[in-house]
Amino acid sequence: MSAILQTVTASAPRRARLWQATLRRLLQLLAVVLGVAVINFFLLRLAPGDAAQVLAGEAGAATPEYMAALRAQFGLDQPLLVQFGKYLLHLVQFDLGYSFRHGMPVAQLIAQRVPATLLLMGASILLAAVGGVILGSLAAYRAGKLADLLVSLLALVFFATPLFWIGLMLVVVFSVWLDWLPVGGMITVEAGYTGLAYVLDVARHLVLPALTLGLFYMAVYTRLMRATMIEVRRQDFVRTAVAKGAPAARVLVVHVLRNALLPLVTMLGVQASAIVGGAVLVETVFSWPGLGRLAFEALFQRDFNLLLGILLCSSTVVVVVNWIVDALYVRLDPRIRLQ
Amino acid sequence: MPSMYAWIRASACNEDNHMSTLATPLPLAARGPLSRLWRSPSALAGSLLLLLVLFMAASAGWLFPGDPLDMVAEPFLRPGADAAFPLGSDMLGRDLLAGIFHGARVSLLIAAVSTAIALLLGVSGGLLAGYYGGWLDAGLMRVTEFFQTIPSFLFSLAIVAVIQPTVWTIALAIGVTAWPSLARLVRAEALKLRHGEMVRASIALGASDARILLRDILPNAATPILVSASLMVASAILTESSLAFLGLGDPNAASWGNMVGAGREVLRTDWYITTIPGLAIVLTVLALNLLGDGLADVLDPRERK
Predict the structure, then answer these.
(1) Staple partner for B49: which of A110, A148, A304, B287, CB 3.0–4.6 Å?
(2) What is the mean pLDDT of residues B257-286?
(3) Termini Cα distance of chain B
(4) What pLDDT score does B118 carry?
(5) Mutating which of A40, A271, A273, A316 best tests the B interface, going by the most B Cβ atoms within 10 A?
(6) Among chain A residues, CA nearest to B289
(7) Residue B33: pLDDT above 80?
(8) Residue ranges of chain A with pLDDT lower than 70?
(9) At a CB cut-off of 8 Å and minimum separation 6, what does B102 contact?
């Protein structure tokens, strides 16, 4: 993704460059969507039994004639290539198929759930980045001391802990034993809050899921931040800043932090797809009504159309997150330009 | 030769670290990476923990000969309540300790097979892309980028859901989604070495491409491959347990993830059923991460400062 970014010296006109970058990105998104579509289509064919068999199985016994009629209705009797062409044709019309279990088009189902997942991901990434920067800086400035040891140890442990297990343990401690926070869900349905009360209610429900998803990545960023910061602090420009008498806080924020942030932003882009995967687990643990929870339901109801639609949609989310990361990159490091 | 090579590179690039080793004239073998491995605290701790897990996996059939999925005790036995079942039993009266020992087998087996698949795909893809370049490289890198974009956990989940979960399909699903980062790493190494003197000498001697790839380039890329393989085993264990937690474990095998998932229903009252297998996962993954860190430190100090 960061292939789009490049350090350039001679620059083309800014506007033309922007157009080129946008075009390139759209092409990239198209390639990803097409690739996932191919995988989806053939994975569906791998599944034991086709849609007709599943439906017929639910209706009880089915005659071969009825099955053949169903197959003809779904176009399952046509050659594979024709079926694939139709699948693609539907895809460009944002038609991801129909979920018989939910009695709703897949695209509509997914659109309902995306905001909750984005909220969870956003909160977790924010938590992970802020926490990682603070803890990593602390460890780097106190390298070899007790604080460093403690932070590094914590990061090591959270880096090795399965997400769902952190979630379950947080539930045991904060919801069951201490009874401070709700066990799951996104809103207190029976309370019927509106306005500010509603926002606060969602925030209360968000704490544990965001913490669960965030802690693992916080561990990753802490380790990364510590390593980069120790390296940046050795650089000549930092020594110069200290020598000219810049206050320590200014050296930290202006000189060290800004340069140490670059690898962290890169990592964020690389991990976007892992964070989406993590969201599935966290949403399952906390019944958070997002894409992940929907994927879990689809899994259990053997609603593969829906499951693969979610795979497609979450891949798109990853591409978009990488666009944001690229934009951040350009802001952080003015030497880097969009290609 | 890779060990010597790594050592020479290491000592050339990190003088201050190696002053002491250079000052005391030890025989070369004693300064090899293996002996230094034992002096790295994280590698040592990781190896010991991992040995413990391996021992558990190896001795499971001998210490706990019965099927770990059988009901052997009274249900909901708390840890320490009955000396015959030190870790207690779950809601179906299954011995948790036996489950932990047998689970080590399943988790390590799946992790090892999936890592082998990922190594095969990643190393061969990376070598070919890096060595031949051109359209092959461009094509393989597009595929790699694509696989890095789709959420690999969701992808494994979809694969396992569509083709029924067994130990082998789970390993396959994890393996085919884990290789891209390794392919990039190996490609970078191959690119570095492709125009080096060693490869040019081999070409001059008339060596075949296969020989150059396997005898010249692969051994010199062994260090990063080894390090990332240990991290891949760790993340495979995490992925397997996550799949099992979502109900996509092999129903006929006692895996740690299966145990955590099963205990979830009684989390409020009997949290230990979930906590104990979770701790086993944490310790094993921690061991592998420590070992990976230690290996990276010892084999190639340039990579970490």
Answers:
(1) B287
(2) 82
(3) 25
(4) 93
(5) A273
(6) A160
(7) no
(8) 1-14, 47-62, 73-77, 100, 188-192, 336-339
(9) B60, B64, B68, B253, B254
- The model's pTM is 0.80
Q: DSSP letters along A227-289, please?
A: HHHHHHHTSHHHHHHHHTT--HHHIIIIIIIHHHHHHHHHHHHHHHHHHHHHHHHHHHHHT--
Helix (H) / strand (E) containing A336: strand A336-338
Q: Using pLDDT thresholds of 50, 70 and 90, give the confidence band for residue B300.
A: low
| Interchain contact, B290 vs A31, CB within 8 Å | no
Contacts of B146 in chain A (CB under 8 A): 31-32, 35
Read out DSSP for A67-135?
Answer: HHHHHHHHTTTS-HHHHHHHHHHHHHTT---EETTTTEEHHHHHHHHHHHHHHHHHHHHHHHHHHHHHH
Query: How many other CB atoms sit within 10 Å of the CB of residue B276?
Result: 21
- What pLDDT does residue B113 have? 94
ipTM of the complex: 0.78
What is the model's pLDDT at position A311?
84
B163/A46 touch (CB, cutoff 8 Å), yes or no: yes
Give the type of residue at A314: S
Adjacent-strand bridge partners of A338 = A5
In 3D space, the residue among A224, A223, A213 whose CA is nearest the CA of residue A153 turns out to be A223
B241 contacts in A (CB within 8 Å)? Answer: 162, 164-165
